[in-house]
Amino acid sequence: MHKTSTLHIEKSVEEIAALISGEIFGDATAIIRNVQRIEFAIQGDITFLSNRKYAKFLYTTNASCVLIPKDFSLPSDLKISSFIRCNNPYSAFVQLLRVFVPEKKFPKGFIHSTAVIDSTATVSSSAYIGAGCVVGANCTIDDSSVLVANVTLYDSVSVGGECVIHSGVVCYNDCKISNRVIIHAGTVIGSDGFGYDEMADGSFTKVPQVGTVLIGDDVEIGANCTIDRAMVGSTIIGNGIKIDNLVHIAHNVVIGDDTAIAAQAGISGSAKLGMRNRIAGQVGVVGHLEIADDVIVHAQSGVAKSITSAGHYFGSPAKNHAEELKILAALRQLPDLIRQVNELQRKVNEE
Which of 102, 247, 276, 344 has the highest CB neighbour number within 10 Å of its CB? Predict the structure, then answer.
């Protein structure tokens, strides 16, 4: 389970504390060579304690240093040589991930010999185009963007600056990707929406999907997602949105800024999600409804009608979270209530 950094980065606890504005408790000279989860850390590793339920691992971890909350009371019988108190151990640990395991850098101005780029495409001189990529007619790729390998851009796709598009991604024609967007392997942007006109005999006629997909700035889209093009107009993914793996977003959906959607969620056609929504795993959203800003929908819920107020929602159909928990609590009492009713009925019958 242990992974060491191949870059052989070493920093003292004192140097790390300075980086994250933390307060040292213990040996400031201890040398840190790697980051690791608290359960699997060994000598030379730094780890963190954020969720208090993991405090039990303080007695078993072999980490050289642990990041802890400022208000955490340390037991006196621990063997760990160093601690750093900080405002947010998790955020501080994320900062250290970038120090000890830097992101891969792609050379600027590189086009692999196996890439196929249409003569009408415009590719920035600072972009990276990896092996097997296909860039169609009238595409544009802006400064410092990366197509890792085997990426396919149909005609008239635009990619903004500082984007990273991973292997196997396909962008259909006319899709527009803004700046600093990350798209992970296997995702398809701009495939046809699920649009059919049902005939009198029960057969289907395909409705042309002639719209596009617009993706805002600072978006990250996970692996094997599908975002359908609009029938007409645009499917819109706003700024700062984070989408997990295996999410489907149907045609003409509009998603507000800074929304996060977890794995296996499905957003049906023409639904409109507000800003700062949090959509948990396996949530289904019915088409043509609206969800207000600052809504949290808990896992495996089904949103069957519009949600007009901020708050927590849960269940299928989704209801106010507190209300749904009361309903579930009442349902658990049903077997006892049924037995009581049957007993009362028996007594009445005996009389």
Answer: 247
Query: Does the domain made of 110-324 have the CATH classification 3.90.550.10?
Result: no
pLDDT of residue 322: 74
Q: How many CA atoms lie within 13 A of 70 on its CB side?
A: 8
Residues 252, 270 contacting (CB under 8 angstroms): yes
Enzyme catalytic residues: 251
CA distances to 171, 229, 234, 250, 332 from 193, rounded to whole Å, are 14, 6, 11, 6, 41
Q: What whole-number distance in Å separates Cα of residue 58 and Cα of residue 173?
A: 53
State which residues of the chain have pLDDT below 70: 1-7, 324
pLDDT value of position 309: 94
Q: Which residues of 276-313 are buried (b: 16+ CB within 10 A; e: fewer)?
A: bbbbbbebbbbeebebbeebbbbeebebeeebeeeebb
Q: Which residues pair with 67 in a beta bridge?
A: 48, 84
Domain range summary for the chain, segments of one domain joined by +: 11-100, 110-324
pLDDT at 270: 97
- Enter the pTM of the model: 0.86
CATH of 11-100, picked from 3.30.1390.10, 2.60.40.1120, 3.40.1390.10, 3.40.50.1370, is 3.40.1390.10
Nearest to 329 by CA among 341, 317, 337: 337
With a pLDDT cut of 90, the percent of the chain lying above it is: 83
